[in-house]
Structures are given as structure tokens and as C-alpha cells.
Amino acid sequence: MEDIFFKYHHRARLSEAAKAGDHVYLNEYYRLKNLPVYRNPNIIKEIFRTYWDDFLLSLDDKMKPRESILTNVDRMIKCRDFSEGYIFFECPNCDEFYMIGLSCHSRFCPSCNKKYREQRAISVSRKLLDVNHRHFVFTIPEEFRYLFRLYRGLYDVLFISVNESFLKLLSSKISKRLDRRLGIVAFLHTFGRALNLNPHIHCLVSEATIDKHNIIKKHSYFHFKKLRIIYMYTLLNNIYKYITNNGSFIDKNITYKLKEEIINNYKDGLYVYGPENNKMNAKEVTRYISRYSSRPAISEERIINVDYNNDLITWYYDPHEDDDFELEDDKIGRQEITEPIFEFIKKLIIHIPDKGFNLIRYYGFYANRTNKSFGEEKRLYRKSYISLMKSKLYWIRLLFNTYNYNPLLCVCGTTMVINYNLSYLKRRGDPTCIRDLS
User: Fold this and answer.
1) What is the average pLDDT value for the chain, to the nearest integer?
2) What does 313-349 look like in DSSP terms, one character per residue?
3) pLDDT of residue 279
4) Among residues 25, 105, 240, 410, which is most buried (max CB within 10 A)?
5) 31 pLDDT exceeds 80?
6) What is the pLDDT of residues 350-382, one digit of tens each?
7) Are 382 and 61 in contact (CB under 8 A)?
């Protein structure tokens, strides 16, 4: 019944489209169905648009957000806003036109992040060799988390410690002599499922080594007990060294005491996840990269309700501990959180990285200077397939795949073209203005 009323309301427009053929009619139907008045709003964007200014006023000078937070939130709020620029398309056959606002390209923006993640997945995939890979996770002791909030340079230390741990694990005489290296792609996540600060590294590690002669050798055995111990000492020593050089005298003493306590309490080393049954084929590797590269702290599907009258938000998370249980009775169960929106905003913005900080890093034979020497025949994907994946990110195809319509197909059946003279590129000369079109 609702669809009948919809078609009746837009009967004139749909009748005109039907004259150009069924495909134009369907395209116009889905275009109208996805007008902002019908489409679900971007919840996170609406929250920040409504509350951000008041949130900033509620903070004292000591709590002023980092510059990268201010920049990314501002860009997200203004994403696709015509005042920030737009591209103008017109039909050469009639008076129809279409305007698309420029995207903000912020990783914090829910809509732009989706495309960014796919772009990063392609960028990572083009580096990979056609060998088995395994998923590893490296965590930090809970006692050290607060230091990562105070000293953001520790995120670099975490990356370095993970790489050094694999280097030390691969330290036999023959491995050193031949300079054998694993291929490692590391992804930093700063959040837990409860949006708490929980820095950890996800790693995609090759089950093969490459030596200085570019000879590939299978390497599927990882001594986990040894790796956990190596990682613990490497991380703790690197953190202490960093705090000694960059931290306060008090934090240096606290770090030393924590380091000694953890060594005494964690006899088996720190938690490292990477079971042998975690091997992945090509399709699984691609899905893995898409999932873990630049993943947002929370997806909008987890937001249950926003109470604008009482300034409250309700969202949920599934406890990580439940992953270890198959029976529902053994699980803690889904947790629903209702809290002030300002608290929710605080939890989100702490996970915005500083400008120029790389959340994805390459080590071993995936490091840039080494990776260039491999021929296409050894790659996981051919250049032609990479080009195909890139083409699927063209904005028109993304819209069609998501909403089932081509925005440039006119109601008369003609394809619209760009009119640069009527387009408004606020940042003229900035390539990000045109990047929306590719």
C-alpha cells in the first residue's frame, strides 16, 4: 500500500520516465525512493551536526580536542554540503540537471570511510604475494592503556615492537645469513567493542619467507610460546625506553614498576592470537583486508536509538569473551548501553588519528623498497584484476550498487554530462575536488 501511494505521488515523473523505456523507469523509481526525505539519515553525522558546537563549549581549556579531531569532525559535518563545493551535471537533450556535493574524504566520516576502506583494501591487495597468510592479533596489557592516551607516540612503538618480535622469532643462523623475511601487513585498532581505549595490532602474515636472493620458502610454523615471550619483553622495553626519553619523571617510574609487575605476572608472555587454522585463501584475504583496514570504532547498525529530547543514545556491543563460547547459555550476552550523547562523542573522537599517521604499515618483504622487486607472476592478484576492483569504486557504480540507480541517467533516457562552468569547486586547484569523479 505504501508503494502505491509513493507511485501515485510521483506519477507524473514516473510516467515521463516510462516513455524512455523500462530501464529508465526503474532507474527513476529507485532515484525517487532514495531521496533524502525517504532515506534513513546518517545517524553519526546527525549527532555531531546537532551536538558538536555545544559539546565543544562544555569542555574546559585543558580538554580541548586535538587539531586532527577538530578538522575531521568539521569535514564530516560539511560532507556533501553544497557550500563546500559541488559538481554540476546537465542533460544535453532536456532541461534536467543533477548536482553532487564534494565528499570530505575524512576517515571519520561514515560514508567516506566505506569507500576509503575499499581503496585501502585494493592498495594492500596489490602488494600481496600468492602465498598463504595468517591472521595475528597483538594486544597490550590493560595497565598500559592510559599511557597511550597521554603519549600518542606509543602507537609507533607498538607497530615497531610487533615487527621486531617477528624478526627475533626468525633468528636462526641460516635465516640471518640469507636475510630471510616474512611479509607483514599491520593494522592498528585503538578501540575495543565497548568503544574503550584498547590499542591492538591486527597482522596479516605470510606463511612464507623470502631471502636476499628472492627465493620463496614455505614457513607455516610459528613458535607461539616463544613469540609471546619475545613480544612481551620487546614491547615493555620499547615502551619504557620511549617514556624515559619523552615522558615525565613520574611516568618513567610508574612505567618501570608496571613493567616489572607484568613480567612477574605474565609468565607465559602477553596475549598473541594466531592459530594455525587461521590460514586464508585469496578471497578470504581480500575480505580480511576490507574488514580490518581503517575500520570505524562503531557501525551505525549498532546504534539502537537516539533520544534527542533527553540527549541520550542507546547502542550495543557483543562482548569479546563470548567469542570463546558456542553455547548461548555460557555467553555474557549482548550489552546495551544508554548514556549521555556527550559521553558517546568523547568515546568516538579519541580514536581519530593525528594527521599523517599511518594506520596500516608494511614490514618484511612487503616493505615498499623490497616489494617492488617482485614480478606480477608472484602476486596474489594480476594488475587487470586490481584495475577491475578499482573501477567498482567509481562513484556512479557505488551509487548503483547501493541504491540501484544511475544518478546520471536522465528521466528522458539521455546520459548527463559535466558542466564545469556551473560547478563550484571551492578549493580550486586542489585535486580532492575532482577525486569524487574517479
Assistant:
1) 85
2) EEEEE--GGGGG-SSGGGS---EEEEEEHHHHHHHHH
3) 67
4) 410
5) yes
6) 999 999 999 999 999 998 655 555 554 455 445
7) no
User: What would the grid cell of residue 334 be?
Assistant: 549482548
Which three three-digit cell numbers place residue 276? Answer: 594455525
Q: Are residues 103 and 219 in the same domain?
A: no
Residue 386 has pLDDT above 50, yes or no: no
- For residues 180 and 170, what is the distance between their CA atoms, to the nearest angstrom? 8
With respect to residue 305, please indicate whether it lies within any of the assigned structural domains: no
> Beta-strand (E) ranges in 6-109?
86-90, 97-101
Contacts by residues 306-312 (CB-CB < 8 Å, ≥ 24 positions apart): 306/43, 306/46, 306/47, 306/341, 308/50, 311/51, 311/340, 311/341, 311/342, 312/338, 312/339, 312/340, 312/341
Closest to 363 (Cα-Cα) out of 171, 203, 155: 203
Task: Kindly compute the dihedral angle of the four CA atoms of residues 123, 125, 129, 134, in this order, to the nearest 10 degrees.
Answer: 120
Q: 100 in the Ramachandran plot: left (φ > 0), alpha (ψ -120 to 50) or beta? A: beta
Same-domain status, 372 and 252: yes
CB 415 within 8 A of CB 98: no
> Is 70 exceeded by the pLDDT of residue 213?
yes
Q: What are phi and psi of 108, to 5 degrees?
A: -80, -20
